[in-house]
Structure to design on (572 residues):
């Protein structure tokens, strides 16, 4: 448990720094789609819920797990769809290079 | 046991790849040309992680000889997808409330999983202190984000009153609630045998979320949405610690830092600290100064006159605000942009960071209306250009153009960075009436010599200007 905690904190700290550096450079143009995509990615919490449903260790855990999977999946699907719709709308007045 | 650890290495590898893809997804989001690649990367990572998790469950089920409930996993995934599709297809003007709602959903998932883990642990082999403390972080943050985000969504959807609701001793009540929740959490960690306290802690977190957002007004929504975004991320990271799942820790840390950075940007753009946004109840204080001053003269103009002035300009800057979104005027604004651009007039848009109800709100609306994104300027990019601007056309924006923020120390928004529209040769303001805006702060811009007030509905007025321009052209 002890090493797992330290490992986890290392990961958390490094991911926090990466997040900070990467997100700082995102154009304010895209702040709304940024928020919707981080929301979709955050719904990766669904994996914890899937395990609860699959293992069915208690009726309570099973029901809570099902509700959690529903909530997270709707964020994943809705988040990716709306981010894609938004980004499709961003067009430049200069002709695209290609 | 050796084979179990084999499958754990396998799932660990899948999660590692998914984490990399998530980071790339955000990396590619930094500019429009690569942003859609970012979505693809995120989607692949997500599918890998979910597929890997189900595969891992199947392997463990075989080894431990337990039946895995695939049916309900698929049913829940199916229902979630069915709910998610319409949530992904909402109108662009409804994006702020949709975002708030999805913060609530994300936090809901985290809180439920935390609760399930708690009862599994308490009724099983017990929960070690470290795991219990992160579990408490998880459900307190998750719980307050659920109700706080629902309140924010309700205010944005206007099912709940947008005005801040304040009462005496509010901050004390809020802090006391949070303190009680934390005390219970500490107690739960130290005395594992007190499960009846757990629902009380979750309940207090839920109440705290409501109390936190009640005093916050519409104009402060960009900061609050960002802050709730950050909380949702942090609660997911805490869940990663509980489950010892590094992918979750990474995704939560990315989301948490993203929300945090956005809240800092939003607070700076309003010259206010976090605590001030949360505990200040801005609009209420400002509104207490009633508009009882004598009516000062303003100049107004008709659509014909406005069209004439615009047609004679060579550089025009449009300043959109939340009023443009409310009036759904963005498509008419784009027609105006087209018609002026065709005459060889340089038209750009000045976007204040807190214009609208969430970060980047105006950009999305104008992009939806097909305004090219390279015409959308940030405040710092365009502020130096106002002295060379012939006409600034303000559509549904108020406080972000208020020169009192620079000069009047007694103004509630003194010190807030604003767009220097008053430096342009002519300022035109489309506004319904002289009633002060949401924050109730008078705007001296409207009484200046170079300012023309265009009274009317934003959409109708812009539409009339476009008609005038088309008529005089042919």
């Amino acid at each position: 448990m002890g090493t797992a905690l330290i490992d986890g904190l290392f990961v958390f700290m490094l991911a926090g720094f990466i997040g900070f550096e990467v997100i700082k450079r995102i154009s304010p143009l895209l702040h709304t789609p940024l928020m919707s995509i981080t929301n979709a990615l955050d719904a990766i919490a669904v994996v914890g819920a899937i395990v609860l449903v699959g293992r069915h260790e208690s009726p309570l855990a099973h029901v809570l797990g099902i509700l959690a999977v529903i909530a997270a999946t709707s964020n994943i699907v809705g988040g990716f769809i709306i981010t894609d719709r938004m980004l499709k709308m961003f067009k430049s007045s200069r002709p695209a290079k290609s | 046991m050796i084979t179990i650890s084999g499958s754990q290495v396998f799932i660990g590898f899948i999660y590692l790849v998914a984490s990399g893809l998530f980071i790339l997804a955000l990396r590619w989001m930094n500019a429009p040309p690569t942003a859609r690649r970012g979505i693809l990367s995120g989607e692949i990572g997500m599918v890998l992680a979910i597929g890997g998790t189900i595969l891992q469950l199947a392997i463990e089920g075989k080894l431990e000889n337990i039946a895995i409930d695939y049916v309900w996993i698929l049913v829940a995934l199916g229902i979630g997808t069915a709910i998610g599709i319409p949530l992904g297809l909402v109108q662009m003007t409804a994006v702020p409330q949709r975002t708030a709602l999805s913060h609530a959903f994300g936090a809901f998932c985290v809180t439920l999983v935390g609760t399930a883990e708690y009862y599994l642990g308490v009724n099983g082999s017990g929960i070690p202190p470290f795991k219990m403390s992160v579990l408490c972080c998880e459900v307190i943050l998750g719980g307050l984000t659920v109700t706080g985000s629902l309140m924010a969504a309700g205010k944005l959807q206007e099912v709940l009153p947008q005005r801040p609701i304040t009462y005496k001793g509010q901050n004390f009540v809020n802090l006391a609630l949070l303190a009680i929740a934390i005390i219970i959490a500490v107690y739960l960690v130290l005395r594992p045998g007190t499960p009846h306290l757990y629902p009380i802690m979750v309940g207090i977190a839920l109440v705290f979320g409501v109390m936190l957002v009640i005093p916050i007004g519409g104009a402060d929504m960009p900061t609050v949405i960002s802050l709730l975004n950050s909380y949702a991320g942090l609660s997911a990271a805490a869940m990663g610690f509980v489950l010892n799942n590094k992918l979750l820790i990474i995704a939560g840390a990315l989301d948490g830092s993203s929300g945090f950075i956005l809240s800092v940007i939003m607070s700076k753009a309003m010259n206010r600290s976090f605590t001030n946004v949360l505990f200040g109840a801005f609009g209420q204080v400002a509104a207490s100064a009633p508009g009882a001053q004598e009516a000062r003269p303003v100049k107004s103009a008709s659509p014909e006159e406005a069209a004439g002035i615009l047609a004679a300009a060579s550089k025009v800057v449009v300043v959109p605000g939340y009023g443009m979104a409310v009036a759904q005027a963005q498509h008419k604004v784009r027609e105006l942009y087209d018609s002026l651009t065709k005459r060889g007039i340089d038209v750009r848009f000045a976007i204040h960071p807190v214009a609208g109800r969430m970060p980047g709100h105006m950009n999305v609306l104008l992009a939806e209306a097909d305004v090219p994104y390279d015409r959308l300027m940030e405040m710092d990019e365009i502020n130096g250009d106002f002295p060379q601007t012939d006409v600034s056309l303000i559509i549904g924006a108020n406080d972000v153009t208020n020169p009192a923020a620079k000069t009047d120390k007694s103004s509630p928004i003194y010190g807030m960075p604003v767009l220097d529209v008053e430096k342009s040769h002519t300022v035109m303001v489309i506004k319904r009436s002289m009633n002060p805006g949401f924050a109730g702060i008078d705007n001296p811009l409207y009484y200046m010599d170079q300012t023309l007030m265009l009274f009317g509905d934003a959409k109708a007025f812009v539409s009339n200007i476009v008609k005038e321009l088309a008529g005089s052209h042919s």
Chain B touches chain A through 116 residues (CB under 8 Å). The first strand of chain B starts at residue 315 and ends at 320. Residues 158 and 176 of chain B are 29 Å apart (CA to CA).
